[in-house]
Design brief:
2 domains; 12-stranded mixed sheet; two-stranded antiparallel ribbon; about 20% helix; globular; Lipoprotein
Length: about 250
């Protein structure tokens, strides 16, 4: 039996059955809401993960004898030599750090710059070169009582460092650090350096410093962090920004 109320037709269905149907529909509705909520959370979580994915190469620093890493204009890089490599990939070249002639010519205000960095193997040389310049880390003695070798290993203590605006051995920023980079070590026309009056956002820190000298070589093994804006030597509007930098390198008194 059925009856009409206006335009609505109500079937002659037992009340208990109607209640059961209503409960089932409500349960389905709640399940649907829950499923939609889970999908939304999963989507936003994935989106967040994508946004936070920096594509920074994962590596264990202990796997490398020495390296310099970071991001160049947001793109990750890692230049170094793996401990288990069977061929030379990158080297730590000598930079003439033991040359003390500036003190002979400028005993009153001269100083010595030390350098350390990474250079590609000669078998595949057309690759990036990157290094630091430690400006006037030794100051000449006006009485010519110089002993740069004796104080070399004490020149790199653990701390934050000033940033050089000039690396001139006479008038440069004493005890400060500069950075230099070339995308192709064989191309002298495209090179970048941090020597600029604007050092905002730049930093250099040594977090570990160890005397690793032996009977044949005086050297200091340093680790730390850095960030630098580097300017093209020929076009200062061409800027390379290195961020999230890390290094583990030797400084040689060669």
């Amino acid at each position: 039996m059925t009856f009409k109320t206006g335009k609505i037709v109500v079937a002659n269905i037992p009340l208990n059955t109607l209640i059961s149907i209503k409960r089932i529909l409500m349960n389905y509705k709640n399940i649907l809401k829950t499923a939609l909520l889970c999908c939304f959370i999963s989507f936003t979580s994935c989106s967040s993960d994508d946004e936070n994915d920096t594509n920074t190469p994962e590596f264990n620093s202990d796997d490398y004898l020495y390296y310099i890493s970071g991001k160049i204009n947001g793109e990750p890089f890692l230049f170094g030599q793996r401990a288990d490599a069977t061929v030379l990939d990158y080297s730590e070249p000598g930079f003439g750090n033991s040359i003390t002639t500036p003190c002979a010519f400028n005993p009153n205000n001269g100083g010595l710059n030390y350098a350390a960095g990474i250079y590609p193997s000669l078998d595949n040389e057309a690759r990036p070169e990157i290094y630091f310049d430690f400006v006037r880390f030794y100051l000449c003695d006006p009485n010519f009582n110089n002993n740069a070798a004796g104080s070399f290993n004490d020149s790199f203590p653990v701390r934050m460092y000033d940033l050089a605006t000039s690396n001139n051995s006479i008038s440069g920023t004493t005890g400060a650090v500069a950075m230099f980079y070339a995308p192709d070590a064989t191309n002298n026309m495209t090179r970048y350096g941090s020597l600029n009056t604007d050092q905002s956002g730049n930093s250099f820190e040594i977090t570990s410093s160890t005397n690793t000298s032996n009977f044949a070589q005086r050297k200091q093994f340093i680790e730390g962090n850095f960030s630098f804006k580097l300017y093209n030597d020929l076009d200062s509007s061409d800027i390379v920004e290195i961020t999230e930098g890390q290094f583990k390198i030797d400084v040689f008194f060669d």
